[in-house]
Structure prediction request, 144 residues.
Amino acid sequence: MLKSKIPAFTLLECLVALVILSGSLLVFEGLSKLLVQEAHYQNQTIQKEWLVFSSQLRSEWDQAALVKVENGKVYVDKGGQALAFGKSRSDDFRKSNDRGQGYQPMLYHLDSAAISQENQLVRIDFSFKNGEERTFIYAFKEKS
Prediction:
């Protein structure tokens, strides 16, 4: 009887292939978990930025009197100083003087900011570049 060699996989080759396959799946799983954690962190960061911004804007407007809302800006008088708050031509919401000089960015990555006024109530609807939307509402004190 003649023995002929038939090409086939050995047990060792099968084990090596299984180890490589399982290692690849473990790496893929780890990268997937890392991606989910990064997305969660980015979402929390945007939330923190919004909380800091809203607190900062409230403290700015607490001692200010509303002058007018015009051309996408809120004009206030704070201790005799005329200030303007609004979205710039770039992607930030900023504080400047009433002529637009000396700016201080307060919030970044904006797509749009729609400002409306009803009596002493100012409403700003923000749309961010990542698709999120936020609304800021502030009631100025009546002029005495």
Remarks:
- The beta strands are 65-70, 73-78, 81-87, 93-97, 104-107, 110-118, 121-128, 133-139.
- The chain has one helix and eight strands.
- The helical segments are 11-62.
- The mean pLDDT is 88.
